[in-house]
Amino acid sequence: MDEDVVLRRRGYIMGVSLGEGSYAKVKSAYSERLKINVAIKIIDRKKVPNDFLEKFLPQELRILTILNHGSVIKTYEIFETIQGKIYIVMELGAQGDLLEFIKTRGALQEDDARKKFHQLSSAIKYCHDLDIVHRDLKCENLLLDKDFNIKLSDFGFSKCCSRDNNGRVTLSKTFCGSAAYAAPEVLQGIPYQPKVYDIWSLGVILYIMVCGSMPYDDSNIKRMLRFQKEHRVNFPHCKHLTRECKDLIYRILQPDVDQRLHIDQILRHCWLQPKMQDLSSAATSEGECSQRAEPSWMPKPGYDKKSTTKLEPQKETPPKEQSETNLEEHTMQVAKQLDVLGISTQ
C-alpha cells in the first residue's frame, strides 16, 4: 500500500521529504489528531541489513519508548504495516539541523553556544543516567525547534548498556557512527566505554559550534588519529574564544579515556555556569576549570594548522563488530568502509 494512503488512514497528511539516511527516510506530515506538524521516519524491513534488523532496530524502538526529556525529540507513535514498513512519528525540528544552521550563519557566539550545549549535555546526562548511549552524536542529529532549542534525535545506533557482576558498564566492540566524530579508541578498534565515546563526540560538536569548522581533518584517518592521540587541538585565532571555552573543549577531546571528562563534570565546568557569562574570561574560580599555568590547547611545535577542515555532512559508517587489533590494520578497515560510502581517505 502506498505510504501516503497508509498515513492518511491514520490521520497524517504527508508533506515534503526531509532527508534520507543509511536505513531510513524521513518525511514531514501534519497530524490531524495532534494538530501539529510532525516528522515521520520510515524504515522498510526488506531494505535493511539483517544485523541492523535484528540488533539495532529493536534497540532503537525500545529506547524511543523510554525517552522523555525536553531536549530529546519526542516520539508520538510507532506502528508497522503488513508490508513490513515501520513508521516512527516524531516531533518536528522546525528550524532544521545544527549543521545547516552553522553552515548558513557561521559559528555561534559563546552565549548562544553555551545555551545550546547545555541543552545537549543535559539530554546526554539524562540518557547516560538511564544507561542509554547514543553512539552517533553529530551536528546533523541535533535538530532545532521553532525557538532554536536543541533537540537530540536519531537513536539508530543507540543501545542500553549492560553491566558486569561488579556493576561496571561492559565495553563495546561495535564501530558505528561517523568517523569525524568518533573517539580515537573507537577508530583504533579498542573495546571502548560507550558513554565515554559519547563524551568525545560532544567535544567535537562544541568545537564546531564555536569555531564553525571540524577540529580534525578526517580525509586521512591515520593522520587524524595521530593528532588526536597527541592531544592536538587547534583553535582559529580569529574566533577570539574565551579561555574557559577552550579549556572545556580541550578537556573533552582527551585521548586518555581515564582523564576525559564525565558528563557531570562537563555540566559543572565554569564555562557552562550562567553566572560566568558576565564575568571576565580571566575569572576561573567558579565551577570546574583547569588551573594549568599555560594554555594546554596551544599548538605543539610542527603542528599542522590545516588539520581542521570545513563543515560537511558526515555519512554514517555501517555498524561492524570489531575485535581488538593493531592501529595500522584497523585504520585500513575503517578506510575501506568509508571508501564504500564514497568518502575519500587519501
Automatic annotation (TrEMBL):
It is found in: Cytoplasm. It comes from the Eukaryota. Residues 12-272 form the Protein kinase domain. Residues 282-332 are annotated as: Disordered. PROSITE patterns: PROTEIN_KINASE_ATP, PROTEIN_KINASE_DOM, PROTEIN_KINASE_ST. It catalyses: L-seryl-[protein] + ATP = O-phospho-L-seryl-[protein] + ADP + H(+); L-threonyl-[protein] + ATP = O-phospho-L-threonyl-[protein] + ADP + H(+). The keyword Phosphoprotein applies. Its EC number is 2.7.11.1. Pfam families: Pkinase (PF00069). ATP binds at K41. GO terms for biological process: intracellular signal transduction; microtubule cytoskeleton organization; spermatid development. GO terms for molecular function: ATP binding; magnesium ion binding; tau-protein kinase activity. SUPFAM superfamilies: Protein kinase-like (PK-like) (SSF56112). Residues 302-331 have a biased composition (Basic and acidic residues). Its cofactor is Mg(2+). Belongs to the protein kinase superfamily. CAMK Ser/Thr protein kinase family. This is non-specific serine/threonine protein kinase. It comes from Fukomys damarensis.
